[in-house]
Amino acid sequence: MASTTACTEAVPLVYPQEVKNDSARKAYKLKLLKDRPETLFADLYKSGEVSNLIFLTDQPLAWHAAISAHYPSVKKEGICNGWKIKIKEVEDPDTVMTTVNMYKNGTVMVQGNLTPFELDFLLIKERAQQEKSAPTDNNHTLPETDTTPTSGCPAADPEKKEPTGPEPDPQLDRAITDLKVKFIELERELVQLRELISQQPAQDTRVQQDSSAISTELTKLRQDRDSNRRELSTVRTEVRELQQDRESHMARLTALTEEVRELREERRSYRRELTALSEELQERERVKEQLDSHPDHNQNPVTPIESSQNPPTQQPPSTPSSISSPHANPTPRSPPITQMNTTPSPQTNTTPHPSRPAQQRGKPDIVILIDSNGKFIDENKLFPTHTVAKIWCPNTQHAMDLLSEQQLGSPSHIIIHTGSNDLRSQQERVSESLRGVIEKASTTFPNSRVVMSTLLPRKDLHPDTIHRINSNMSRDCILRPNVHLAHHPTLDINCLYDHVHLYKNTVPIFARTLKDVALNRDQSTPRRRSSPAQNPLRPERHPTGPPPRQHPWRQDHPHLLPHHAPLRSHQGSYDYPQARPEPLLSPGVPPQPQRRELHPDPLSYAQAVKRTAGPTLTTTTHVPEPTHTPPHDELRDIQQMLSLLCSHLIGQ
Predict the structure, then answer these.
(1) What pLDDT is recorded for position 514?
(2) pTM to 2 decimals?
């Protein structure tokens, strides 16, 4: 069908909005055709396409002759109350191009290929005008047709005269006229129905295509529904498994809560024992002060240990001033003094560099085995008063190769931070590698203080993996008396500029923790940064100010503060009092090694209790003050060990 855009003369039939039903449309169209005769109109489908061309004329015979003369190949047929002209193609006479139906009432309907007729309409109209102006022939009859009429109606004869008779009834004439009009409309609708039937196969094909597409979409929707059902079943299974996991985790959490409650009870019992020990130490200190304040009752008593080591004939006469006054000079004539001169004093042992032999000065005192996170650590600034060697140690196997006396010598401190580069390949098997490093360091260097640093968090690994490795390392360190753990709780993944390495401004925090553990310092105590010459001397016995430690039992008992603080000369922040006399050792007491005197290993709980229960006061002039580590330092180590155990048990 040709569209209205290709038409140049046809006027489309546009119905107003008030015309809605078919009868009103027919009446409106008939009125429009009568008002504008011989004007070509385009009748439209509801879809907007052109169905046929139609116009009304008062001379259908003239138009019949004009159309037949205009086209070279036509076929004339008769229809009910009219004529049909089939316009054929010149090249193919068997193909009908356009069909023109002409009715006696003057209606002309064009169907088929409408574009050629629309273009030739003006020429055909001029020829029809010429046919109208030609003289009429009284003998003119209907044009002959080469075929019989297509309908059952007889062919109309315009020249046929009606028989004479009485005058016809006007009502009958009107009825006949109405019937004719209705027949014409029915015939037009029949033609349209035929065209619709001829177009039905194409519409059926389109409907079949649409139904096939709908079936395909329906199949896809069914498949999607089945897949969604399977996914829903999988999700329900996963939810059920998650609920089971949650229940198991809740059960484990309940068990862990009970364990934590038990651990807290044990911690309370340990605190009560520590309180009892501190009270016992306080009582012993009070007794000692009373004995020092009453020299008449403390002139000649001798402890069983010293009486067994020194015969009574060799005891020099003692004076009260030799015990009570720390500034009194020792008598040079007594034999124990001579023995003391051959034994290095504790003060001499606390000076690391001047007391070393000349051949050991070139060897490092402190060895740091560290991976790439130690790039920005300045070992000389970290330990300014010691000889330090920082060795790159990327993994645990390299640490095993370095842990030998041929490689490291005999250092007093060994700091190890490695294993992070093994996490990607070994995962939790790194715990076994670190256990081997701890065992080799402890057995190869039994007199050295070994510091094992925990693994730092990484962005590319789950934190639970690193936490379990650090927990295993903590348990392995506790089993070794000379191995200590350096934990870094303040460093998390926000301190990493990539997946592994620390920001440069967080390296001092990391290095400070290693130094505090290596020097056996309390990490909660603020650091003193003044030089040794500017630091005031510490009081000999009782400090006037509050104690620097934050332990509650030490704040309640300030007289239990240590007489000899742990090693502070590594920082350059403490000088021993020059007015304190050198403690005298009895002939039977062997000198302690210098490394053990600098950093005594923490004792076990049983050893600390046994050490505390032993004699803490000697009344001879040879030992004015005890030479062993003060008991409260041992108790501090015990408390730190218990706190570490509790924290790891709670964290598991």
Answers:
(1) 92
(2) 0.32
